[in-house]
Every structure is written in C-alpha cells, then in structure tokens.
Amino acid sequence: MRKNVGIQVFLAVAVLLFAGYRFFGSAGLAPAKLRIATGGDSGVYYAYGNAFAEILEKRMNIPVAAIQSGGSVDNIRLLRNGRAEIAFAQNDIMTYAYNGTDLFSTEGAFKDFSAVAGLYPEICQIVARREIGGISDLRGKRVSVGDEGSGTELNAIQILGAYGISYTDISVDHLSFGASVAAFRDGKIDAFFCTAGVPTPAISELGADARILSVGDAHAQSLISQYPFYSRQVIPSDAYPAIGEEVATVAVKATLIASDKLGEAVVSEIIKILFDSRDEIGKVLPRNDELTRGAAVEGIPIPLHPGAEKYFFEN
Ligand code: GLU
Fold this sequence. Notes:
By secondary structure, the protein is an alpha/beta fold. The chain has helices at residues 2-24, 44-60, 72-80, 91-99, 152-162, 177-185, 201-204, 217-226, 264-276, 278-281, 293-296, 306-314; strands at residues 34-37, 64-67, 86-90, 113-129, 142-144, 171-173, 191-196, 210-213, 231-235, 247-259.
C-alpha cells in the first residue's frame, strides 16, 4: 500500500515536471491565444495583420486576433499593458520606446519586448491638393498629422521641422488614414501625412486632384543626419496610377515586435510561418517580396527576440 502511494507521488511529480518543462522550460511559455496590435483599418498594418492572424491561427491551432489601433505608439502601449503579445511598430518609434527617449521620455523606457523581424519600408507620404507645390506651402494650411498614437505624427513633426514649420504655423488635425482621405475629399483638410507601406490602401482611393509632396535632397540629408532611422526612398509612379508621379521622399521600417513573455520556440515558429507565407501576404502588400532574411535583421537597433536569433542563426 505504502509502496503504491510512493509510486503515485513519484508519477505525479514526474508528470508535473514534464508539463512544467513544456510550458516554462527552454521552449518558454506556450500561449493559449495571440493578439497582434495593428493600426487603423485603411492602413497596411491592419491588412497585413489580419492576413497574418488568419494564417497563424490555421498553422498554430490557437485563436489569433488582429487588434485595430492608432498605430506604432499605441501598439507599444498595448504590449506594455499586456493587451497584445505581438505588434507592428516603426523602427524609430520602437527604439524611442526601448530607450525611453523622445516621445517616450515621460512614460520611461519599456524594455520587456524585442524585435522579431523587419518587414518592409514605410514611406513618409505627404498627400496634398494638386495646387500645393511643396512642403513649404503647407504654412497656414489645414493638415492631418496622423492618428493619436501613431508613429506617423512623429514623422510629420520631424519633416515639417526640417522645413522650419511647427504646429503653430498650421491648423492640426489628428485623423487616421481613412478619416484623412474622407476629410480630404470633403475639402476639410488640405494635406495629410501617412507613413505606411506602399501602395497604402487609403491613398489608392484618391484621384488626380491629389499629389504627393517630395522631400528635397538637402532636407532629406538634414533629416537623416539628425534622425538616422530615415532613409531615402522613391515612390514609383505606378504605385498610385491615379496620382501617376514618381516622388522622392524618406522612409522608416515596419518591424514586427513581441513581448518577452512569449517563449523562444513560439517566436521562432511565428517567423517560420511568416517566411513560409510571404506570397500569401503579398496579396495584401504587393511589395512583400522585399521580405528577405537579410533585410529582416537590418536597421534594428533593439535586441532581437531569442526566438528570432535562433531562427535567423539556423537559417
Ligand atoms: N506606421 C504607421 C504608424 O504607426 C501605421 C501604418 C499602417 O497602419 O500601415 O503611424
């Protein structure tokens, strides 16, 4: 009898240890569900996030939700408050959050997340009425600088700043990309900023009364030297057939980030699925062929998640 109890206790302990290893061992915590923080519904984060959530759900056999949000800044806060496990963020915004600088200087550094993979260039697009000649002409105009909680707004402040324009020189609106397009069509705003993958669904809806303003060489150079996250990018003329112009501007980079609570094995599985489904995601972001293993680890000044390190090392 006594011997039986001993065996039972031994077996129970062994089962607990095994289960503990599966969930908390080197494989890390296996989540019961995943939430991906994306952006507004006319942006690329949202389209990409929904497509990816659907693929992850099928492949991982757990519920995966794509959460709508204001964009990068909001997404970091959703991770910080434990309301999402994975998020999209601009590489500039995630670095400010990690170091607790710039727009994160009051809330302080948030270090409990890391980078999963750099995804695609997010181009700073300044859409304006056709008769507006350049960024300098935005003085005195009504301009949407992006949603509350977006990374777009910081880019707007920095780009306007390079032209010596501040919020006191323009009339400021905080609108999502979709709301900006609606306000632009109704004649309520003269221009709007949009930092997103190209073509951005919201901008594709516009016609020939819109143009995209270029960031001149000298201004781009001064921006890049002050904020090294920017790079020079050209929007090809076929990106928006109705607008039909090639435009030189600047860009940052969309990055997938994850809470450090997610285990190594889970994150490495997520990246594997990301690369396996490149063509499928390419249906919502035509330039997704820029997703390569080399480009995915470039321009990332914060630590890579251990699961990402493992994946990129092995591949
Ligand atoms: N990069 C944008 C932001 O954080 C969002 C882009 C998108 O929704 O596709 O402001």
